[in-house]
Amino acid sequence: MIQSAPKVLISIALGLTSLSTNAELLADYLRKDTPLSGKIWDLRSESFVEPEALLDSLANGTWLLLGETHENLDHHRIQSRFLRYLDKQNRLGALALEMADDSQQIVLDSAHSGKTEISVQALNWNPGWPWEWYQEPVTEGIRRATRVLGADLTRDAKMSAYRNEQLEVPADSGYTEFMLDLLYESHCGQMPKSQLGNMLRVQYARDLSMLEAMRANTEANRVNLLLAGTVHTRYDLGIPYWNKTLESKTLLMIAANEDSTPQAYYPQSYSQEPVADYILFTPATEYESGCQ
């Protein structure tokens, strides 16, 4: 937000602080009907933190895992703002995408160098991830990040994990039982439970693929970002569950309603520990369940 010169001079004369971080990044997300919208909640200190302060506090070499609801366009707009902010601070490192796989790395690198246009066709973009949802953050990443990573597995690699009965998921019983229930519900209760173990292996293999891409491309002197679904970014279920060495922080983006109690939005878990570091609340919205 650009202020007029008189307002800036008045602020300086009165010794006022600079614009609040909400004014800089999330002011247009503040809503009277959804009081939490546009605010960020720290789950560990149980207090609000301003977005610029959060981004400024991230140590160099850190990965910020942005857990999104895929069909929520607000989440993609905010991701783009974070990319632009870090770039303006000259702190933006690599951007890893769940929405692209390693077979696309060549064209992503080519687009980053300016040799390939940023388009559905040129990037061989998977139609399962609607381009109208991801065009802005992907374009911003290609133009601003040090590298954009196709971090997910290819379809063939996912099928290989699905069929590989020798692939063990080294998780405790709490994780396994919770994830199997979650997979069953996410498939509308229509997938035979005998196949849920196969799906769990795929989930595990995808987490490892993203984690390895991140490890191999960490910019040590900058802040790196991952865009992925919330489950992949959670401490109790996703990449941080397997990660023992890579410095990371998780921020979940969650649509708020009229309830102004942050704890009411904590995701269900089998663990008593926080599932994330932060929750960023966005305006209320309705999702189609996809279940008939």
Written description of the protein model:
This protein has 292 residues and is α/β, with parallel strands linked by helices. It has one domain: Rossmann fold. 39% of the residues lie in helices and 16% in strands. An 8-stranded mixed β-sheet has the order 2-1-8-7-3-6-4-5, sandwiched between helices. 35% of the residues are buried. Mean pLDDT is 91; it is low at 1-22.
Q: Can you describe this structure in just a few lines?
A:
With 292 residues, the protein is of the alpha/beta class. It is built from eleven helices and eight strands. An eight-stranded mixed beta sheet has the order 2-1-8-7-3-6-4-5, with helices on both faces.
Write the layout of secondary structure elements.
Blueprint: H1 5-14, H2 21-26, E1 40-42, E2 47-49, H3 51-57, E3 63-68, H4 73-88, E4 92-101, H5 105-112, H6 131-144, E5 147-152, H7 155-163, H8 173-186, H9 196-216, E6 223-229, H10 230-233, H11 239-242, E7 248-255, E8 278-282
Helix pairs in contact: 4-6, 7-9, 8-9
